[in-house]
Design brief:
This protein is 53% helix and 6% strand. A three-stranded antiparallel β-sheet has the order 2-1-5, with no helix packed on it. Strands 3-4 form a two-stranded antiparallel ribbon. The chain is mostly helical. The protein has three domains: 61 residues, no CATH class; 85 residues, no CATH class; 49 residues, no CATH class.
Amino acid sequence: MKTDTLLLHRSLGAALPQDYIDWAVDQLASGVDTPNIRILAGLSAKLDTEEIESYFRKVCLELGIDAPLKTAHFNGTVRLIRRAYDCREISASDAIDRMYDLYIESDFGDSLLSIWDNIIEELALKGSGDGGYFYPPDLLDSPGRLFITEFSLLERALNLKLPKDFMHYIQCSRCNHIGESVLKHRSWWDKLAAKLSFNKTPALWHTCARCGSFEYACMWDPAVRDFYFSKLEKEQGL
């Protein structure tokens, strides 16, 4: 097992005791030798995970390996996933799954990672007639292209100063304005019915805050995020 692969599994909480031991054995076989790597290679996988982890951390200190804890900021794990994909250690489908796992690790609270939840849902619906809301069928049929498309957008997002709730923004199909929507009744009849109805209030619709259009695309669409990020990159001098 390669070092980056072990670090990736570890950052996601998926590294098994045997993974650490196999990694140490592989390191010795490749000529890497330290006192603690010999100990780690000789440990039993039945030992407590924390004890094995402690020897791994000692080896990392000896070899100068940056091994942040699982609770560290997700940026490092994100880059490990990309590196593992580029090195063909994991498939595109596995890379997408790992990004989704990272979203779960964030307790579903990181807006930058929330898109991977949507990707998993669209892939699950592929072929059912209900999928393809934000991704064309040919992109859903190519996990590699899908992963690279979304990962590239994520890398750009990490370099930008983004509004906290930007994922709730919409892009107006009429004037291209991007920002928070305004909720309105769709017609004068809806407004009247809202005043007269005691049982059911007509639905409110998202509209463009600039021109009032009801036609829009949302941030889940990668084309919208690409347009928005390009605009911010110019404004922020990136």
